[in-house]
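We were asked to recover a plausible sequence for a given structure. The inputs and outputs are reproduced exactly as logged, with field labels preserved.

PROBLEM: sequence recovery
POSITIONS: 140
GIVEN STRUCTURE:
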């Protein structure tokens, strides 16, 4: 399997094994994350490989940086649900903070971004919460 797929699978497995999250979901890897609004009545957590960068670390070795996106989506405009979804996004980010992936020990999370915290256009146009957490891993 390609590195990006292996790592996306490991991120999804980590999410699905996480305990004490404020909402229940099953994370799935999806290389083409396009959904109809009717598919987002229930919470959807999608893991998508984003990028691979390879640079020279030494004369003999390369350094690899992999980015994986985690999309959190649900059709809602209820302020209480929006707050709960933002809480879940923070919890998801906290799972990976400076940790190695259990199923891919060569990768350590060295950065997390969630900007913007949600897509205001999706909320305004579709009454849909969409947030993307980008994880940056260093692979040895």
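RECOVERED SEQUENCE:
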């Amino acid at each position: 399997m390609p590195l990006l797929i292996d790592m996306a699978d490991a991120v999804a497995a980590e999410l699905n094994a996480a305990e004490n999250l404020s909402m229940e979901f099953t994370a799935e890897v999806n290389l083409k994350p396009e959904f109809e609004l009717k598919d987002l009545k229930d919470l959807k957590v999608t893991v998508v490989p984003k990028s691979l960068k390879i640079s020279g670390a030494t004369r003999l070795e390369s350094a690899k940086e992999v980015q994986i996106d985690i999309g959190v989506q649900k059709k809602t405009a209820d302020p209480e649900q929006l707050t709960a979804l933002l809480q879940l996004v923070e919890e998801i980010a906290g799972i990976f903070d400076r940790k190695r992936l259990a199923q891919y020990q060569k990768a350590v999370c060295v950065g997390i971004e969630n900007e913007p915290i949600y897509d205001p256009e999706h909320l305004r146009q579709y009454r849909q919460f969409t947030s993307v957490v980008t994880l940056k891993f260093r692979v040895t």
